[in-house]
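Provenance

Sequences were taken from public entries as deposited. Structures were produced by running a predictor on each sequence independently, with no templates supplied. The record for NADPH:quinone reductase from Amycolatopsis albispora is shown for reference.
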Amino acid sequence: MRAVWMREFGEPGVLVAGEAPEPVPGPGEVLIDVAFANITYVETQFRRTGFGPFRVKPPVIPGNGVGGMLDGKRVVSSLRGSGGYAERAVAPVGNVLEVPDGLGLDEAVALLADGRTALMLSRAAELTGGERVLVEAAAGGVGSLLVQLAKAAGAEVVAAAGGPEKLALAKELGADVTVDYREAGWAPPVDVVFDGVGGEIGRAAFEALRPGGRMFAFGQASGQAAEFDDAAERRVRVESGPLAKPEEMPVLAHRALVEAAAGRLRPVIGQRFPLDRAADAHAAIESRATLGKTLLEVR
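Predicted structure for NADPH:quinone reductase:
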């Protein structure tokens, strides 16, 4: 079968398409004919540095989420940290979710990781009507969903992103206010921050929090974490660790699919790359020029 190999850590060019042995499911596993593979920013970090939640070493076929066919049904599934960038992938049976009617398979793959993350964050934030919520990277995969969830909770949504195209998308998704975080003094006073960028942007958002505010740091698109050492002094609560138990992840993912099928949540797929161009897909994500979700089209 065709697959993408990573034989060493490094630049996007270490992702090379080639042939791979057919995967064989073991006890409690199933074999999925893959149509789309999910790509996350975490996977780009892992490829570059080896740092991340995946307990695998090169040579390896990357990819932790896929969508395709299983016994004639459309399904999506998380894997065990590898094997997704391929025509077929082995998945734990407990992770497999059937795609509901009314939702495209590609949309379901776009929601698999980002949907559960956004729902996890919005649940932890316990948003209430009238609060002012700042969403960083508001045109990204998770950020675009958080804009919608915060708006549905009755919050005033401030969407932060870089450039007019991204800000226009955030506005279309329901943001009340849009701000370009490349401009000085961009961060207005807020009650809640969803920090998917880190670094100086995350710190500026943190400093914009009112006393009693909540900061949820879930990503480092800037390449570094923001500093929150003075959170207690500022009377701000910071959450940066796991906000859900592992067994809750499939439940949250299923809820995201249901919400999208009902028209209450819209996944944004901004870029699609064929399997053989996985390196280009990673490079696009790292450039921070992408909109919404980036998918690999396997078939």
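The two ends are 12 Å apart (CA to CA).
The chain has a mean pLDDT of 96.
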